[in-house]
Amino acid sequence: MSSSPLTCLVIGTGGREHALARALSLDPGVGAVHAAPGNPGIAAVATLHDVDPLSGESVADLAESLGADLVVVGPEAPLVAGVADVVRARGIAVFGPSGAAAQLEGSKAFAKEVMEAAGVPTAAAMVCTTPVEVQAALDAYGPPYVVKDDGLAAGKGVVVTTDRDAAVEHAAQCERVVIEEFLDGPEVSLFALCSWNEADGATVYPLQPAQDFKRIFDNDEGPNTGGMGAYTPLPWAPDGLVEEVLRDVLQPTVDEMARRGTPFSGLLYAGLALTSRGVRVVEFNARFGDPETQPLMALLDSPLSPLLMGSATGTLASVPAPSWRPGAAVAVVMASAGYPESSSKGDVIRGLADAEALEGVHVIHAGTAMVERATVTAGGRVLAVVGTGDSLGAAREAAYDGVSCIEFEGAQHRTDIAARAAAGQA
Question: Which domain range does residue 338 map to?
Answer without folding.
Answer: 328-422
